[in-house]
Amino acid sequence: MRLVNIINNYFSVTDPRFSVSLLTEIATIIVLFLILSLRKPRWFKIGYFVLFVLLLRCLLFGNQFSWGLYYQQLTVDEVGWRQQSVINVEYYKFFKYPGKKYLAVGSSQTYVMYQDYSKKHNNITVINLAGMTPIDFFLYRKYITARKPEYVLLYLSEFDLAKEPSLPAARSDPPQGLDFLRQLPVYWELSKTAHKERELKEMMVMELFPEYKYSFVFKGLVQKLMKKNEALGIQSLYEKLHPDSEELKKEIGGTLEQMDGRWIKYQVYFLREFFEYCRDKHFKVVIIEGQYNPLVRNESTARLNDLTRVEIAKLLKEFNEVGYIPTADTMPLLASDFDDAVHVKKESALRYVPTLLNKLEAMYTTGSEKK
Fold it and tell me: What is the mean pLDDT of the chain?
């Protein structure tokens, strides 16, 4: 009876697509193994090796139990912020989702803005990756639409659109299959501009070899087993979340260095690709103009803000179904509302989100999505 309950519980929370896919892959491998064993062609040893690799991939990356283990065992101190959030998203993709009204998608900015509110309200959930920008929206487009929201909320500003689309980070994004070849000219141009040719080559190899794409998992497990951080006395990344005044100045300087107008066209390109995908799948997207610590703002960020607003205006004309809420129509955030250069404090987020959702409700009740 306990076994029956376990099976029932498994299928009650797991998306059946993944279960069917996993069982089909394993069954196919078994059938091919039996065929090889019976016929024994000259190359049967190579065939055995290929089947072994495919089976190993199923066991390591093709099921929720493996990703659940990685999720439970590996923290940011073993793998880093980006990699830990990749593990998080990969693990939770296996579960069923009823389809909440709002799905907030974005970087850690998005996470700290919506996560605490989402724990107490059933109308919103969050998908986030550390350092997530429009290139990642596009690469994770199937994961996003699989959540079946009514509205996809994007918290975007010049901080996101004037940031380099990170090919090093995108290496661990989901495999794209043949679509990777369609986007390859853009990736190539981007790699030349960013001097990331090596990272693009690695990205190409990782499309074929998931064990290489997710090698950070194995490195993290070894690091945890060896207790490397403790042995070397490495400070936990969690201890750096709330910088003092001097650390904040350095962080502001680093934030400003990341923002450059030459990246806007690439981020807008991927944003357009994401919008086209959502339109084809009949999902509504709303851009909420993001805010960051006013201490970061200067003449350069003001210029970048003007450029990003121009590009967003062009996108809104091209995609009539995309909504937009400027900062003037949301709760203004002061320097005292931020923990650091870009992340809002919990109490401020809990004030901001209800007013934003009320604005959204009013917009789509009156049909005034474009501002």
Answer: 91
